Fold this sequence. Notes:
- The chain is of the alpha+beta class.
- It folds into two domains: about 1-40; about 40-205, Sandwich (Immunoglobulin-like), CATH 2.60.40.
- The chain has two helices and ten strands.
- The strands form two sheets. Strands 3, 4, 5, 7, 8 and 9 form a six-stranded antiparallel β-sheet that branches. The protein has a four-stranded antiparallel β-sheet with strand order 6-2-1-10, with no helix packed on it.
- The site of one 2-acetamido-2-deoxy-beta-D-glucopyranose has 6 residues, from strand 3.
Amino acid sequence: MLGSRHSRDRCFKCYFCLVAYATLIFFIFTISVFIFWLIFLPQELKFTVTDASLTKFSLTNTTTNTTLYYNLALNISIGNHNKKVGVYLSHIRATANYGDKSFAVVNNISTSFYQGHKSISTVRAVFEGHQVVVLEELELSRFNFERRARVYNIDVKLGLRVKARYGKIETGYLSPPNVDCQLEIPLSSSPIERYVGAMFRLTDCGGVALPLLVP
Ligand SMILES: *[C@@H]1O[C@H](CO)[C@@H](O)[C@H](O)[C@H]1NC(C)=O
Ligand SMILES: *[C@@H]1O[C@H](CO)[C@@H](O)[C@H](O)[C@H]1NC(C)=O
Ligand SMILES: *[C@@H]1O[C@H](CO)[C@@H](O)[C@H](O)[C@H]1NC(C)=O
Ligand SMILES: *[C@@H]1O[C@H](CO)[C@@H](O)[C@H](O)[C@H]1NC(C)=O
């Protein structure tokens, strides 16, 4: 009788200890994360399309298929506005879409590079070629409307692998969700024509969150 109460007490004690330790660890962890945030204040990496040229965007209709011919170039700026965090970027992939049809993909638009704190880098994406596309009626009527206006809505998605450097500590590479650039690009038949009439407006694509301290 006495023995069993004793062991129940002991069990209660060790259970209590376990909870106390878990709580303590949880608090230390939370406070460390908070201090980490205060020191580094990690901000998103920002993507902006600063310039775009579209010199070809046409559909040819044959008996067997519809082919899209395209020639599109983008200048994309990547802003690291962090005061104390550096980033490594690699495998930057650009996918061009019309409606929800993707018509061109470029893997590795740039070699891997390191981007220090408070800096902006520029990468270029060039899509040139042709692709058989199957457009729905709605997409086709939009295409015809945009052909008359000579301004096309093209959606460019950017994917990448990113690693952050906090002081001397580096995280592992992560693949954040794609960045989405919804572009409205005037067609130009010559480089000079790009600076008359409808001009490309700088387009904000949003950003990606930096990986936190995971190896
Ligand atoms: C992009 O940048 C390059 C080099 O600075 C420049 O020659 C070009 O006109 C810019 N625009 C496009 C759409 O390529
Ligand atoms: C191509 O031809 C088909 C059949 O005549 C037509 O339905 C479709 O609208 C045409 N597409 C274009 C891009 O003109
Ligand atoms: C599309 O049609 C063109 C012209 O008929 C032909 O040369 C090309 O091979 C076709 N492409 C496909 C994927 O069927
Ligand atoms: C992209 O470049 C990296 C090295 O910078 C290379 O390891 C990788 O295989 C390349 N990927 C593609 C799809 O070309």
